[in-house]
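stage 2 :: seqdesign
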């Protein structure tokens, strides 16, 4: 294919990227909008670095020196980096000190892990993957893509150092927005380092052999194109630059901006006035047609079914320029937010800018927007990571597709596309010698002459030397350089071995969960239409000289060089010519990327033309930072941040654009905090995980707290007493249905002493506890609870995987959506019944995540009518004061009300009798021990037996059992219960496992055996016996005498 044909073919594809608004001719009726100059002004400010101050001199993406630890911020002798501590108590001395400190903390959190990864690999070049880093070898450049966002470089690589076959569709490795570092393979970060951000990870290419991924190089001056250069690439497993880079840039820009609310945010000023626009016009309709002065005439009686605390919170939102609302679990903070937004929108004037609503996660944002849609369906959602089908219809991309956009005058978008097209032509000419069509023979003599590797005389003599024997046949088509080389070159081949490792479920499953959380909670891409697109130019250089001796072409006539030395001379010429091409290429990359910035300005200008007339715009806090140039140009007066306590401070600071008059923060600082990639930055003295919400509340800045919860039955809500001392119950929670199969028991702490374990990724799990939880889950389903009404929570991914695996393998749950989540991913959610697996059980009384009160708060507050905890109660209570309080609440009750013990109290729905179990039937869940036909037959037989029994003399049977028990056990049982009611809950050993685990996969009715496989029969009536205690029981050793040598009953025995 000729150069001309290549250009024509690619150019034909480009017009589809042209904006609809960039048409010169407009109709008489078409609306014309002038592109706002504020967007360009903002971008120019963001691009300007100040070398006088360290934090203002950093580029958006870290440079190689920073990743290699060569900056002045790092003390090379002592091996540490100096960071200004975060001040969470008391006022900051200045707003500049505040901005710089948060920038430095965020920068370290973004850079440190990759910097460490590079240091590890530099020290040990043969290092394989660890739980901290991922290493990719045999990395080669295979082409470039002329993207609207910039030049993307496609590389192929081998993940062999992982030691496993990676399930890429479930893996968070190399997702778009991840930061990586590359170095020549023969250098391995000793002197050279290239920093790049993953531009795209096409699934069809990442799964090939070799795998391929697209990169944006951080520094134009370091861009490379050489298809024969081998690289090594490293990535930190944790950390995600895309979620912080735009916030850091916003903090730098704010240094030279007006900073609204700085007197409260930095100076902790406690006197909070009303918003300026309210001061000018305080008249507003609340929930009637009557206007009132909300500053002086606020009604004393709540309206619109709001309780008193919600009514006061609503007043705070509408009348305070900085409104902070704490909403404990189930108190309806989202309801208050929606009510406030409805009133703010109803009072909004036609010429007012949009109201901006942001949330930490996409999921929380979409939930809020779905509530808003009921009365404001014309909102616009910025960012394309929504998983909600209804919200997707209101993304900016969909709105642009479904409506006519105003014609823009003075927009940068149209000219930018024209410049991109021209620059693509120029760069194609530069790289054409390395195209696929040029790869069938060595680089041409003309190429070397053009790029200064051959002098004019050398070139002429080389061509003249072939003039006498290149007149006919194939020789006439061969280049003089190819003829001169003869057999002095060979093909450059890269061998990617067939990786035959086994698939490791642990990593795949863990990374799958991480990937889903990242996709939903971090806006790492713009709209889906912004996925990598553009013309792809493949690169290939087939030949390399056979000898690589360090020789120079010091003669004018290359034909005088012996054939055996020509390969090394060819390699020398290649290096010399490529150096010239590389300089030219890097300059062109710089120019192209500058045009891409112009194109981004033009895109924001186009978005502005649509968004300026919107009433409400929703986005994540990350999306707000990313689009801050656009948001600033819209000049919003009102910004509401939902989940503000789960967001670290800097993104909320970035939301304070210059036009802001009213900032509303809604959240709960006693639930989940923000997260950091570097755990050393959490806690004293850096406190990077502390939100602005929490800091302001702890420094006595005025806030309102909701106090009436509508989620949990009182028995569950009481567990939150150590955390919320003023939380009350709404009357509606008293009427919630009981848990089938559990009688009046709505909460219970099942205690055990089964030891924990650690998986290959250092996550904790507890095998026996996982089986017990899964079996109880199945029991609840058999008792009549819908699978969708049960959620299993745990603090550890390792345990989540174990429980989910056991449940998914059970045939009774096939095809059903099973909800098993980590606590961190379940904030803001609730379900009817929650099973909490605590996992930790060790001699050292280490409880890890269970010691973090914010996480515990979330775990204790997700259930509505049934909450069941599984764990080593005595160890956990002894290790942590909060858990001690929880155990006391569940255990310091009369025997009949006690909700903790070593046996689960199961209740027969028909007769109200209780059965107690302290072990699970693991084989019931594994179901791998017997053929399908045998399983079905056994199951059918036992089911038939039970049905016959249930429809027969069950009442007579119960009467006989009761008489026998009363005669033989009543006096001894009552004496024991009276004595042990005063005993410490955990003084005694738990009941040992006296029964046998069920080995029969179909035994879901009874499991009574004498150890020899014989069924135990009652001599009086020759029917299966069942152990029942209708009254109180002891949670620890109290049942040991009663059980005697009787077998342990299984949860599946009902």
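stage 2 :: out
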């Amino acid at each position: 294919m000729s150069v001309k044909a290549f250009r024509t073919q690619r150019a034909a594809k480009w017009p589809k990227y042209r904006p609809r608004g960039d048409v010169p001719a407009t109709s008489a009726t078409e609306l014309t909008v002038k592109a706002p100059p504020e967007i360009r002004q903002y971008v120019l400010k963001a691009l300007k670095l100040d070398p006088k101050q360290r934090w203002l001199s950093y580029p958006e993406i870290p440079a190689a020196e920073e990743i290699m630890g060569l900056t002045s911020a790092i003390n090379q002798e002592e091996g540490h980096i100096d960071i200004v501590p975060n001040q969470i108590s008391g006022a900051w001395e200045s707003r500049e000190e505040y901005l710089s400190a948060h920038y430095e903390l965020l920068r370290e959190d973004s850079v440190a892990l990759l910097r460490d990864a590079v240091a590890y690999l530099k020290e040990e070049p043969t290092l394989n993957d660890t739980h901290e880093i991922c290493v990719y070898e045999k990395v080669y450049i295979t082409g470039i893509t002329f993207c609207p966002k910039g030049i993307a470089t496609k590389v192929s690589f081998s993940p062999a150092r992982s030691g496993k076959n990676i399930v890429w569709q479930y893996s968070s490795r190399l997702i778009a927005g991840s930061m990586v570092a590359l170095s020549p393979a023969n250098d391995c970060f000793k002197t050279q380092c290239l920093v790049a951000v993953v531009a795209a990870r096409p699934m069809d290419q990442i799964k090939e052999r070799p795998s391929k991924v697209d990169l944006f190089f951080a520094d134009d001056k370091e861009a490379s194109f050489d298809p024969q250069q081998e690289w090594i690439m490293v990535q930190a497993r944790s950390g995600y630059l895309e979620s912080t880079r735009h916030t850091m840039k916003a903090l730098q820009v704010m240094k030279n901006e007006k900073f609204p609310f700085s007197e409260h945010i930095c100076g902790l000023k406690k006197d909070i006035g009303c918003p300026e626009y309210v001061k000018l016009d305080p008249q507003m309709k609340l929930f009637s047609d009557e206007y009132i002065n909300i500053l002086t005439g606020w009604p004393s009686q709540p309206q619109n079914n709001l309780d008193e605390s919600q009514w006061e919170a609503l007043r705070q939102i509408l009348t305070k320029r900085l409104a902070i609302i704490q909403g404990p679990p189930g108190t309806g903070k989202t309801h208050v937010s929606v009510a406030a937004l409805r009133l703010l929108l109803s009072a909004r004037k036609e010429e007012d800018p949009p109201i901006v609503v942001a949330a930490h996660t996409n999921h929380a944002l979409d939930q809020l927007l779905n509530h808003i849609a009921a009365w404001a369906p014309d909102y616009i959602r910025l960012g394309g990571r929504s998983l909600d089908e209804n919200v997707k219809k209101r993304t900016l991309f969909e709105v642009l597709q479904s409506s006519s956009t105003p014609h823009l005058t003075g927009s940068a978008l149209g000219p930018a596309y024209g410049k991109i097209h021209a620059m693509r032509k120029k760069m194609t000419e530069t790289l054409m010698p390395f195209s696929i069509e040029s790869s069938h023979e060595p680089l041409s003599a003309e190429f070397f002459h053009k790029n200064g590797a051959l002098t004019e005389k050398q070139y002429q003599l080389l061509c003249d030397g072939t003039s006498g024997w290149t007149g006919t046949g194939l020789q006439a088509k061969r280049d003089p350089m190819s003829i001169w080389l003869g057999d002095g070159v060979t093909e450059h081949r890269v061998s990617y071995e067939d990786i035959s490792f086994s698939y490791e479920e642990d990593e795949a499953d863990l990374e799958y969960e991480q990937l889903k959380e990242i996709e939903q909670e971090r806006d790492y891409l713009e709209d889906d239409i912004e996925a990598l697109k553009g013309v792809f130019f493949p690169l290939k250089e087939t030949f390399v000289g056979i000898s690589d001796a360090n020789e120079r072409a010091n003669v004018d006539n290359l034909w005088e060089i012996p054939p055996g030395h020509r390969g090394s001379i060819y390699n020398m010429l290649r290096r010399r010519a490529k150096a010239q091409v590389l300089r030219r290429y890097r300059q062109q990359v710089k120019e192209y990327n500058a045009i891409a910035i112009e194109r981004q300005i033009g895109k924001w200008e186009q978005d502005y033309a649509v968004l300026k007339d919107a009433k409400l715009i929703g986005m994540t806090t990350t999306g707000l930072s990313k689009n801050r140039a656009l948001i600033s140009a819209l000049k919003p007066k009102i910004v509401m941040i939902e989940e503000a306590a789960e967001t670290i401070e800097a993104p909320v600071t970035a939301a304070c654009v210059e036009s802001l008059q009213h900032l509303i923060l809604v959240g709960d600082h006693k639930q989940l905090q923000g997260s950091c990639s570097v755990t050393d930055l959490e806690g004293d003295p850096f406190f990077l995980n502390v939100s602005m919400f929490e800091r302001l509340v702890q420094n006595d800045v005025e806030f309102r707290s909701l106090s009436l919860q509508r989620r949990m039955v009182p028995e569950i809500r009481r567990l939150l007493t150590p955390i919320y001392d003023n939380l009350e119950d709404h009357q509606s929670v008293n009427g919630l249905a009981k848990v089938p199969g559990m009688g009046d028991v709505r909460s219970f702490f099942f205690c055990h002493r089964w030891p924990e374990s650690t998986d290959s990724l250092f996550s904790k799990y507890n095998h026996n506890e996982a089986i017990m939880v899964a079996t109880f889950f199945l029991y609840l389903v058999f008792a009549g609870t819908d699978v969708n009404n049960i959620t299993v929570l745990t603090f550890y991914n390792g345990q989540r995987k174990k429980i989910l695996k056991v449940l998914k393998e059970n045939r009774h749950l096939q095809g059903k959506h099973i909800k098993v989540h980590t606590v961190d991913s379940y904030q803001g959610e609730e379900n009817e019944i929650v099973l909490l697996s605590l996992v930790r059980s060790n001699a050292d009384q280490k409880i890890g995540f269970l010691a973090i009160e914010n996480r515990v708060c979330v775990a204790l507050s997700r259930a509505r009518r049934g909450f069941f905890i599984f764990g080593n109660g005595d160890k956990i209570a002894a290790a942590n004061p909060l858990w001690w309080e929880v155990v006391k609440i569940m255990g310091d009750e009369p025997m009949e009300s006690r909700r903790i013990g070593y046996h689960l109290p199961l209740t027969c729905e028909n007769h109200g009798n209780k059965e107690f179990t302290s072990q699970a039937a693991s084989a019931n869940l594994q179901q791998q021990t017997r053929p399908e036909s045998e399983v079905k037959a056994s199951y059918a037989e036992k089911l038939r037996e039970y049905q016959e029994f249930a429809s027969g003399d069950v009442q007579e049977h119960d009467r006989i059992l009761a008489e026998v028990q009363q005669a033989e056990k009543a006096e001894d049982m009552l004496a024991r219960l009276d004595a042990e009611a005063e005993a410490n809950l955990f003084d005694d050993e738990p009941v040992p496992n006296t029964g046998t685990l069920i080995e029969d996969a179909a035994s879901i009715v009874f499991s009574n055996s004498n150890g020899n496989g014989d069924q135990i029969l009652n001599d009086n009536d020759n029917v299966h016996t069942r152990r029942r205690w209708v009254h109180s029981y002891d949670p620890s050793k109290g049942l040991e005498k009663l059980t005697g040598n009787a077998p342990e009953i299984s949860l599946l025995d009902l």
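stage 3 :: structure notes
- The CA atoms of residues 709 and 729 lie 5 Å apart.
- The chain is about 35% helix and 15% strand.
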